[in-house]
Amino acid sequence: MATKKGAPCNFSEGDFVLWSRVDARLPGNKLMVRWVGPFRITDEMVQHVSNQGLLLNVERFCDARYNDELSRWELEVSWQGLEDAENSYEGLEELFNDVPAKVAAYVAENSSDGLRAALAAPQE
């Protein structure tokens, strides 16, 4: 969505966009850029996940659960500046390494004995 020297593009519902691609099926050694479209933007993709290099701040913790598959405690994180639909469960140890004061405050106020024990274990 951005050229090497360009800026990221944002689109709104109702906008029209063109998609560029190189057509390698053309005869000869030439690669011709073709523009396909226009395509109408119909809705916002809130649930789309990609690595965009964003640094997010923890707004608050919403819930805690034990993940049997990974054998670890996880906290549901509400990220600052993002919608509730974008909350995610993150591992307790990773969160404690990043934001120890917030994790300790949440565990002290809102959690079960199992979560308290899990938080105490990495600190010992």
From TrEMBL:
Residues 56-118 form the Chromo domain. It comes from Phytophthora palmivora. This is Chromo domain-containing protein.
